[in-house]
Amino acid sequence: MANESIPYKIYLSEEELPQTWYNVRADMKVKPAPLLNPGTGEPMGFEDLRPVFCDELIRQELDNDTREIPIPQEIRNFYKMYRPSPLIRAYCLEEKLKTPAKIYYKFEGNNTSGSHKLNSAIAQAYYAKQQGLKGVTTETGAGQWGTALSMACSYLGLDCKVFMVKCSYEQKPFRREVMRTYGASVTPSPSDQTRIGQKILSDHPGTTGSLGCAISEAVEVATSHPGYRYVLGSVLNQVLLHQSVIGVETKTALDKYGIVPDIIIGCAGGGSNLGGLISPFMGQKLRGEQDYRIIAVEPASCPSFTRGRFAYDFCDTGMVCPLSKMYTLGSGFIPSPSHAGGLRYHGMSAILSQLYHDGYMEAVSVEQTKVFEAAEQFARVEGILPAPESSHAIRVAIDEALKCKETGEEKTIVFGLTGTGYFDMVAYEKFHNGEMHDSIPTDAELLESFSHLPAVPGQSK
Ligand SMILES: *Cc1c(COP(=O)(O)O)cnc(C)c1O
């Protein structure tokens, strides 16, 4: 097998690092629905968003038309420290599975933050700095986004206040210390430092927190401290835009060898890595130039695409953020404390939600024990110790490769390997000890959660 002319790793040169981000919205006939003001139900414009977000990031958020957006030189310079990231041919995994499928993965874990999140963190910190701000606030689930943002802020000399979902804060003390090493302050959420945190604590004593709660707290602190803005590591259009660097590099690398994928797979929490990976391929699909199967993989414990509603909902538990039209489990939904912290979000990117709704992509949900089986199988042959989030994509890549084995089809599969799992060893330990359980919400739990979706004109419950 290894006598093929495709190298194990397809590297690009520094010069081949993308000059522009690709904005897939420009090619969407049906644009993602606008953010709505939770008070008035009106679409939110530039001025409405200014108290919360940095100006340039709002422009990117609202820009549905510009196809290519130049990557500022300072951001490209930062990218050059860890990009272009390799596209790796999983020869060893193929051999182990005895599949005729050709499997490639784009590896984003090759930086200290350990994930793709740094791609957007540096961009968001850069625009905050450009605007002359003192600092930024944010939430973090598993800790990767907080780590990435801490690194970007320390590089640019910005203050960074992180609200970390309480169960992760407790499960992952080392993540917290990495963030503090880069100078960030880290507070477990819900906390008693914000009004919304106090309310959540009194309504749900003993809660392990959720990304939705932590977002509310971070927004409250940003809007009540002069010189601060809130930044978010996923879900938003601007984040998918920054993450398109993953997809543009992947496409450039594949094109070099004339490889056309049949299936593209990524895990989906808020949708940023998947959205970034698929953007240029989706663009071709939208323009009718090429067809691909695109598969989003989500945890069975937090199944936004596969069991959620496509509806306007709050992005946060505290209901202070704008309303976004997306696949959602309801902003009050608190998923069971699974080990893929980065996928524990009730909603989904508005861009991906619209594309899924319009039939341009598929979604599947997988149980965490099956995910860890795939993670271990992958680690043993490919060497990289994958993050639990990334392993959702591995699971489905393996499943698709095994289907090829049955049918004899030589399909080309590309998946996003978003990060490494060194800070997730408690989860691996639980898996090895047989103490990992799959928890799947019941229909009744979801119906209860949907009953709290906000009333928006033209939207039935
Ligand atoms: C945050 C994270 C994810 C999920 O977030 P998306 O915005 O859906 O990409 C996936 N993998 C890793 C390693 C992460 O840190």
Shape: globular
Instruction: Please identify the top-level CATH class of the largest domain.
Output: Alpha Beta
CATH architecture descriptor name of the largest domain = 3-Layer(aba) Sandwich
Q: Which regions are unreliable across 5 or more consecutive residues at pLDDT < 50?
A: none
E-strand count: 15
Number of domains: 2
Strand order of the largest sheet: 1-4-5-15-10-11-14
Computed over alpha carbons, the radius of gyration is 20 Å
Count of individual helical segments: 18
Helix content: 40-55%
**Main structural class:** alpha/beta
Mean pLDDT: 94
Strand percent estimate: 15-25%
Output the CATH topology of the largest domain: Rossmann fold
Bound molecules: pyridoxal-5'-phosphate
Largest sheet: 7 strands, mixed
Q: Report how far the terminal alpha carbons are from each other.
A: 54 Å
Brief write-up:
The protein is α/β, with parallel strands linked by helices and 461 residues long.
Describe the structure.
There is one protein chain. The chain is globular. α3 (73-79) packs antiparallel against α5 (118-130) and α11 (237-256) packs across α12. The N and C termini lie far apart (54 Å). It has 461 residues and is an alpha/beta fold. The chain folds into two domains: 9-17 and 83-114 and 243-450, Rossmann fold, CATH 3.40.50.1100; 20-25 and 33-69 and 116-230, Rossmann fold, CATH 3.40.50. The chain has helices spanning 46-49, 55-62, 73-79, 91-97, 118-130, 144-156, 166-171, 173-181, 195-203, 211-224, 237-256, 272-286, 304-307, 350-357, 368-382, 388-407, 425-432, 443-450, and strands spanning 9-10, 20-22, 68-70, 87-89, 102-107, 135-140, 159-165, 185-189, 228-230, 263-267, 293-299, 309-314, 323-328, 362-366, 412-417. The longest helix has 20 residues, at 237-256. The relative contact order is 0.15. Helices cover 41% and strands 16% of the residues. α12 links the parallel β10 (263-267) and β11 (293-299). Residues 115, 117, 144-145, 234, 267-274, 342-343, 387, 389-390, 418-419 line the site of pyridoxal-5'-phosphate. Pyridoxal-5'-phosphate (PLP) is lined by residues 115, 117, 144-145, 234, 267-274, 342-343, 387, 389-390, 418-419.
